[in-house]
Amino acid sequence: MSKAKPARETGARPYKLPDIKPQTPVAALDRNRYADIATEFPLASVALAVGMSTTFIKKICGNRKTLDVAAVLALLDQDAYKETLVPRSKVIDHLLALEAAAQIKPKLLDVRDASLFHGHVLDQLKLIPRKSVQCVVTSTPYWGLRIYKESHPVSWADGEQSPYGHEQTPEGFVRHTMEILAALYEVLADDGSIWWNIMDSFNTRTQIRGNAAEALRAMQGKDGRSWSEHECRRYSAGHAYLKDGEQCLIPSMIAERASRMGFYVKSVITWAKTSTLPEPQTSRVSRNLEYVLHLSKTRTPKFNKDIYRTLPAAYGGRNTEHESDKLSDVWTLPTSSGRDGHGAQFPVALPARCIALSTDENDLVLDPFVGNGNSGVAARALKRRFVGIDVSEEYLAASKKRIAEAKPIKLPKE
Ligand SMILES: C[S@@+](CC[C@H](N)C(=O)[O-])C[C@H]1O[C@@H](n2cnc3c(N)ncnc32)[C@H](O)[C@@H]1O
User: Fold this and answer.
1) 282-296 pLDDT, tens per residue?
2) Which residue of 133, 226, 227, 347 is surrounded by the most CB atoms within 10 Å?
3) Is residue 102 a contact partner of residue 162, using CB atoms and an 8 Å limit?
4) pLDDT, tens digit, 9 for 90 and up, residues 10-39
5) Is the CB of 344 under 6 A from ligand 1?
6) Ligand 1 contact, 342 CB (< 6 A)
7) Does the beta carbon of 139 sit less than 6 angstroms from any atom of ligand 1?
8) For residue 136, what are the β-bridge partners?
9) In whole angstroms, how large is the CA radius of gyration of the chain?
10) Topology of domain 115-405, per CATH?
């Protein structure tokens, strides 16, 4: 009897993605559930979960290194409280789960040379040595916009089980992003930088497609499938406040929460794209931008602003057609052709600019959503070491090939 081929080989998706229905759950904090718990929680973990600095918490709770349940409940009552990576009703469950997880000490990965790792980003980040990474540069899945080849549900601290980017609400997506950023904080060097490429989504009723080419075909009327024949749909009704057709403001939510979790938001950079898909909407302007959030752990991360003037444009230097001699927070860079079969790539020039600005030769660069490997190509061209993670073996194989073929360029100071 012939063995069934794995889904990857047949082209079928191994997991049926559910539709997205952004209905905000009705939930509230149940204080009585925690009455008998005597656990003390580290101040730093509490600070991250309640979105306040440790100094501010000390003003409320006194100068303590750990906090008990009563103190955490008091923080959840403060005007200054704001959700970060779990909703208010789950903060104490989250802190208890962290205490249990702290008992497990995994064997760490060897990241001395360029490496690619397969798996869910949160599982892999636990295996990367603390403070070993000088720069994280990545383009994450955007909320509710694309279906990736090997998308499957993963478990999150807020209790949701979903592929990243396929959450039922934008808030779920933002919480999961914050959980990933908290894990990245641990592996980032003290003078390191995170460059987080993100685009906003609109709360609309739409079919979710695999890539921009499919979306364009649909706009040109070349997709004959009916609403119900699509693999996956996104609805717009049922959210606590977002109305149909409204912009979700996801990048600003991520930036604010990153600040609340201890990062410095150094810049919110606009990536002005040189070409974008046509949009059918007639009641708003068309979108032409994405964002790159520059986050750091300290006020003065490693930063070499001058390199922008000397690098070739293809590797992050000035795009002379559109950019001035002054490196500003508007970057005009070409959109990726997407010819390599991955639906959502950034151009090599984007990660190359981030890497060149915030690392030296041989520093370690990490892309936790490596996709087709453009960040790895940039790192190799600039002679930096590179670690990439992706949940898709197919994308990793493409990445491996592209990174191996990339040639180091002659750097300006040579
Ligand atoms: C926007 S794409 C990255 C594209 C990449 N910057 C490039 O230029 O090719 C996002 C990637 O995240 C991967 N991904 C999605 N969920 C993931 C998870 N939980 N852990 C690791 N990778 C994941 C997808 O397979 C996809 O390749």
Assistant:
1) 899 999 999 999 999
2) 133
3) no
4) 455 667 889 999 999 999 999 999 999 999
5) yes
6) yes
7) yes
8) 194, 366
9) 22
10) Rossmann fold (3.40.50)
